[in-house]
Design goal:
Beta-Lactamase, GAF
Length: 430
């Protein structure tokens, strides 16, 4: 098939699509820098005008002009920013700050932010300072991006040095909880048959909750994680109290203080289920684009760690099997050698016995003895009697070579009787 100029093949398009998705996730996480602007008038720094980005930054509920900045944003006074404005107004010298921390809002709504900003004096026609222009760019997302990349790099290094999977997953969960305050992370691992999910890591969830969901089935309507695993797609539950997926787990979630759960499946490169990655919240909440991008990023990292773990486990199992096979082979070889040595010993003993029997038969041929073998037992034996045997108790009998050999091998203290041995009478008459 001839390639069309300017078009990518399907094989080339897949990596390109994955790369584009990764870029979109990073853009969602890090955002784009937005400049904030405000114009302040007089020594009281009355807010004369500001752009929408400024009001979005301080909170739309405070989007008002004509008020002193200290009244509109009282939190700035204790942080020294109003004093800086006074200094610029008095001196007429601009002030520039780089990556400066600003705490915006108060109480539960307080937010940490970082800015590059400039306080620039405004002057009238005569050169007198009449106010100040505030120009700034929020760098919070840049700082978060740097922190995220550092944490992510540390996780990848852990995976590369083959750190235990539980250590990697626990570290990943804590990293995300630090990056996204208020989030409680849980990672569940799929069984080999992908029909159940087992506890992987959840450092901030109660132990009773982790034990209760350990081993839950994958299936439609089985909470957020069981359903996400079944669908192989993210499942967003914004309010556990009302969502039917949580009918069987609602009381458990309420006991654990959980109100929302967003679950993302962790998939292998071949599409197989490895587990689920869940982000819980203590209040009902709809995820933002940054939340979803963070979930996709770390679900991919978890997939890498889990697949690496599976590979290492398979390698260890194969090595153990090989060692076991080698040990078994060595044992079989040893047993074979022992059996061969024993067989050789038996053969040598049998040859020696046969020689003794032939010699005894020749020596006893002229001695009086019965005609037939006496060692045939109840079935009898019609073979000629050739050799006399005796035991330590004084019993003696004549037999054929076959039965004599059998008796010597199976009866204790049986030996070939010979006049040359002298017998007990010879000993008594010494």
């Amino acid at each position: 098939m001839t390639a069309v100029p300017g078009q990518r093949s399907p094989a080339a398009a897949a990596p390109a699509a994955a790369e584009q998705a990764a870029e979109e996730d990073l853009r969602g996480l890090f955002g784009e820098s937005i400049a904030v602007f405000a114009s302040l008038t007089g020594p009281g720094h009355l807010l004369e005008t500001a752009n929408p980005a400024f009001f979005a930054t301080i909170g739309e509920e405070r989007a008002r002009v004509g008020l002193p900045l200290a009244e509109l944003m009282p939190e700035l006074a204790d942080q020294g920013f109003i004093a800086l404005l006074d200094q610029v107004f008095r001196s007429g010298e601009p002030y520039t700050g780089r990556d400066i921390q600003v705490m915006l809002g108060s109480g539960p709504q307080v937010r940490e932010a970082f800015f590059d900003f400039t306080y620039e004096p405004r002057r009238d026609a005569d050169g007198n300072v009449t106010g100040i222009r505030v120009l700034g760019v929020e760098t919070t997302q840049v700082r978060h991006a740097q922190r995220l990349m550092a944490e992510h790099r540390a996780l990848l290094e852990q995976i590369a040095r083959q750190a235990p999977l539980t250590e990697v997953l626990d570290g990943m969960a804590r990293c995300i909880e630090n990056l996204a305050p208020g989030v409680l992370v849980s990672v569940l691992l799929a069984d080999a048959d992908a029909r159940h999910l087992r506890h992987g890591a959840a450092p901030s969830l109660p132990d009773f909750y982790n034990k209760a969901i350990d081993g839950i089935a994958t299936g439609e309507g089985v909470g957020s994680c069981g359903t996400a695993a079944h669908r192989r797609a993210p499942v967003i539950v914004t309010d556990i109290a009302t969502d039917p997926f949580w009918d069987d787990f609602r009381d458990l979630a309420d006991q654990a203080g959980l109100a929302a759960c967003w679950s993302t499946p962790i998939l292998a490169r071949d599409g197989g289920l490895l587990g689920t990655f869940a982000m819980y919240h203590r209040t009902p909440r709809v995820p933002q684009d940054t939340d979803l991008a963070l979930a996709r990023l770390f679900a991919g990292t978890a997939a890498l760690a889990i697949e690496r773990h599976h590979i290492e486990q398979a390698k260890l199992a194969a090595e153990a099997h090989a060692r076991s096979a080698n040990d078994e082979l060595a044992r079989v070889v040893l047993v074979e050698r022992e059996l061969r040595a024993e067989a050789e010993q038996r053969a040598a003993a049998a040859a020696e016995l046969a020689t003794q029997m032939r010699a005894a038969a020749a020596a006893q041929a002229a001695a009086p003895h019965p005609e037939h073998c006496q060692l045939g037992g109840a079935a009898g034996c019609t073979a000629p009697a050739e050799i006399k045997i005796a035991d330590s108790w004084g019993d003696a009998a004549w037999g054929c070579p076959t039965h004599v050999e059998e008796a010597i091998l199976n009866v204790r203290s049986v030996f070939i009787a010979s006049e040359e041995l002298g017998g007990l009478a010879a000993y008594l008459n010494r």
